[in-house]
Amino acid sequence: MSAGLNNVFESTVDSYGPVPLPSSRTILVGIDGSDTAMRATASAFGLARRQGARLVVTFVACHSSLAALSPAVASVFEHEATVRLHAELSDQVRSFAEELDVPVTFVKAFGDPCTVLRDSADQCQADMVIVGASQQAGHRFAGSVATRLIKLGHWPVLVVP
Fold it and tell me: Are 39 and 132 in contact (CB under 8 A)?
């Protein structure tokens, strides 16, 4: 695997907007580019702006189901798609942070979305977690990220439809 391909699986942290006040509350939002995640992000920006809170936007890169079919092909496909999506989301988040004057930490991590969001929320001592509702039918049976986060009960979870 080339060094460029490994970079997609490395965690990154970027900061946008003003410097947060030390006493600021922290809101964490999970983002994956889906419509519901983008609505959740918009809601999180609104709440953070009104409350003078710091916003931690967390993008979780994870393996797709293509990996089971052909790991080499899936890795190249996932790398390109993840890099493109991360760049697009990062640009949008930076633009919102500057326009709305909200302090933002943009985190890219790799792994299981529920685990990464839980760990990120615990590490930044989030006061609230916001996620978009799942649009996948299978999650009614297996449980969505939102349902799993709610069951953890560490923080209030707002699920945006």
Answer: yes
| Strand ranges of the sheet holding 104-110, from the earlier edge strand across to the other edge | 12-16, 104-110, 54-61, 26-31, 128-132, 157-160
For residue 122, give every residue at least 6 positions away whose Cβ sits within 8 Å of its Cβ, in sequence order, or none: 154
Q: Model confidence over 121-157: pLDDT tens digits? A: 999 999 999 999 877 644 444 458 888 898 887 899 9
Total-model pTM: 0.82
Using an 8 Å Cβ cutoff, are 78 and 67 in contact?
Answer: yes
At residue 45, the 3 state secondary structure works out as helix
Other C-beta atoms closer than 10 Å to the C-beta of 31 total 26
CA dihedral sign of residues 24, 125, 105, 156:
negative
Nearest one of 154, 149, 97, 151 to 127, comparing CA atoms: 154
Query: With contact defined as beta carbons under 8 Å apart, do 129 and 123 qualify?
Result: no
DSSP labels for 137-149? TTHHHH--HHHHH
